[in-house]
Design goal:
The structure holds two protein chains of two kinds. Chain A is α/β, with parallel strands linked by helices. Helix content of chain A is 29%, strand content 26%. Chain A is built from eleven helices and 18 strands. In chain A, the strands form three sheets. In chain A, strands 1, 2, 8, 9, 10, 11, 17 and 18 form an eight-stranded mixed β-sheet that branches. An eight-stranded mixed β-sheet of chain A has the order 5-6-4-13-14-15-12-16. In chain A, helix 2 crosses helix 10 and helix 3 crosses helix 10. Chain A is globular and about 65 Å long. Chain B is an alpha+beta fold. Chain B has one domain: Folate-binding superfamily (Folate-binding fold). Chain B contains two helices and six strands. Chain B has a four-stranded antiparallel β-sheet with strand order 3-4-5-6, with no helix packed on it. A two-stranded antiparallel ribbon of chain B has the order 1-2. Chain B is globular, with a radius of gyration of 15 Å. The chains are: A alpha/beta, B alpha+beta. At the A-B interface, helix 8, strand 12 and strand 15 of A face strand 3 and helix 1 of B.
Chain lengths: 419, 98
């Protein structure tokens, strides 16, 4: 039975909107659960939702240090795509794309998923060849991809400078039409409501301060709101993975935490109706439904847990924006912010059992975790429920680095700040 | 963020290149201890707080620097030449003094 429908909206409008239930309860943590999920971000909430829905495991707590959606799920630039080169990534992100395509219906919550396309610009013939290779790899696995000429690109994005006078002239692009954007807050709220209605306890303002153990085995957590025991403890804390794993006595991880900044301008009239990325640096931009241009670039490039960055990257991102869109020179920037990214050593994520008995780990999303939210939760729930990974996440192990099985989509090597 | 280069003084971070985690220990080149090599290449302490790291003043004197920087606040508590007082930059600086 849908909670939000044309009828329920109309009925509540007549009753002064007094009868809406809160989207999720505010329970106190119980003494024990079947599964504890540390981290109430998109991935943690999606995991709880799919545990309850797909596997019937509803005695679950999601423990969130701050308020729901205060981390990266509310800080990203909302792009969703599955245009990867390597099969492990392509299959996983395409699974995510298919879940996105039905997500609003599935959750009965409008996540405003808009398949407006994602266009990667090529600025040299070699780069265009490289995009053709990636597009072919995608199509080989059933993902949509098409090459575009500068004339077609100009028709799609009239504001783009594709002239030969541009600093980096555009020679073509790789388009994924099914890619797009989604409203990131709604994704968190939709999964939270879906999990809560199935019996999951979402406990906010509950910081995990340590782990309870029986020998090597993890048997629960100590929190700012008391001890909570569980048969299975799942960690989905993105940029804070290192800190949480150190509480469990795991000193080193194959990742570094870095800060990524994002920006939004004042509202403009419709300017660009797709997601566009720059090929001669790192820059991506889309326009929100409110009209603000949402954009970002590279991570700052040094280890950081501060949710704010420094000015050199601001300068670089603005320069790249103006290289593509000279017409934006006088648009005012409204806000900028930062989020902490868990940069793995090969640029690919980790969804796995372990590394300690009783523990499950979901991390290493670099700065691309938002688009993965549905598949990450879906695969993590499968792994927790069945104590074995699904085919989609089987390659994303923690020990792949020491076993020589890295999944390095960009071919950058073990340098987390370059992924 | 300003980094106070021991040779050039306080300079904007844009003049520096981050060389990464300074806690890693490179095994002896002849070592066949694969675990030690794997740990050197892949494993990181990634602390929230003071972090030992290597920066190069690539837009200045080009010296490699050992920096202790807080990853929660970006505050820098110490900067030294990687090779201590034996680096050529430090020697030159010492010779400059009357």
């Amino acid at each position: 039975m849908a909670e939000y429908s044309a009828l329920s909206l109309l009925a509540n409008a007549f009753k002064g909107n007094k009868d809406w239930k809160p989207a999720w309860r505010k329970p106190d943590p119980k003494a024990s659960y079947d599964v504890i999920i540390i981290g109430g971000g998109g991935h943690g909430l999606a995991t709880a939702y799919y545990l309850a829905k797909e596997h019937g495991i509803t005695n679950v707590a999601v423990l969130e240090k701050g308020w729901l959606g205060s981390g990266n799920v509310g800080r990203n630039t909302t792009a969703v795509r599955s245009n990867y080169l390597l099969p492990a990534n392509t299959r996983f992100y395409e699974h995510s794309m298919k879940l996105w395509e039905n997500l609003s219906h599935e959750l009965n919550y409008n996540v405003m998923f808009s398949q407006r396309g994602c266009l990667n610009l090529a600025h040299t013939p070699a780069q265009f060849d490289d995009y053709a290779r990636r597009g072919n790899a995608m199509r080989h696995l059933g993902v949509d991809a098409e090459l575009m000429t500068p004339a077609e690109i100009k028709r799609l994005i009239p504001a783009l400078d594709i002239s030969n006078d541009a600093r980096f002239p555009v020679v073509g692009g790789l388009m994924q039409r099914r890619a797009g954007t989604a409203r990131h807050d709604a994704v968190a709220w939709g999964y939270a409501r879906g999990a809560d209605r199935r019996g999951v306890d979402i406990v906010e303002n509950c910081e995990v301060t340590g782990f309870l153990r029986d020998g090597d085995r993890i048997t629960g957590v100590t929190t700012s709101r008391g001890d909570v025991r569980a048969k299975k403890v799942a960690v989905a804390v993105a940029g804070s993975t290192g800190r949480v794993m150190q509480l469990a006595g795991v000193e080193t991880m194959p990742m570094e935490s870095h800060v990524l900044q994002a920006f939004v301008t004042e509202s403009l009239k419709p300017f660009i109706d797709t997601v566009v990325t720059f090929g001669m640096g790192h820059f991506y931009m889309s326009q929100s439904d409110k009209g603000g241009l949402v954009y970002g670039g590279d991570i700052d490039g040094y280890n950081s847990y501060a949710q704010r960055g420094n000015l050199p990257i601001v300068d670089e991102v603005m320069s790249e924006m103006l290289a593509l869109f000279p017409g934006l020179a006088r648009v005012r920037m409204l806000r900028s912010w930062g989020g902490v990214c868990d940069m793995s050593m090969d640029g690919s994520p980790i969804i796995t059992i372990g590394p300690l008995p009783g523990m499950y780990l979901n991390c290493g999303w670099c700065y691309g975790g938002f688009k993965a939210t549905p598949a990450s939760g879906w695969c993590f729930a499968w792994t927790i429920a069945k104590d074995q990974p699904h085919d989609f996440n089987a390659p994303f192990t923690l020990d792949r680095f020491h076993r020589g099985l890295v999944i390095d989509d960009k071919g950058q090597g073990a340098n987390p700040r370059l992924h | 963020m300003l980094i106070t280069c021991p040779y050039c003084g306080p300079r904007d971070v844009i003049e520096f290149t981050y060389q990464g985690d300074g806690n890693r220990e490179r095994p002896d080149p002849a070592s066949q201890n694969f675990e030690a090599w794997n740990a050197y290449v892949y494993d990181r302490l990634n602390p929230a707080g003071d972090h030992n790291e290597i920066w190069q003043h690539s837009g200045g004197c080009r010296a490699h620097l050992r920096v202790v920087r807080n990853t929660l606040t970006h505050e820098i508590s110490s900067v030294a030449f990687v090779r201590g007082d034996h680096s050529s930059a430090a020697r030159r600086k010492a010779e400059d003094k009357p």
